[in-house]
Amino acid sequence: MSLIRIGLIGYGKWTRNAYLPALKRDGRAVVTSAAARSESTCRMIENDLGPDVSVFEGFEGLLEGPELDAVFIGVPDFLHESALTAVLDSGLPALYEPSMRLNILTYQVLMWFILLISKPGFGPQED
Question: Is this model's pTM higher than 0.90 or not?
Answer without folding.
Answer: no
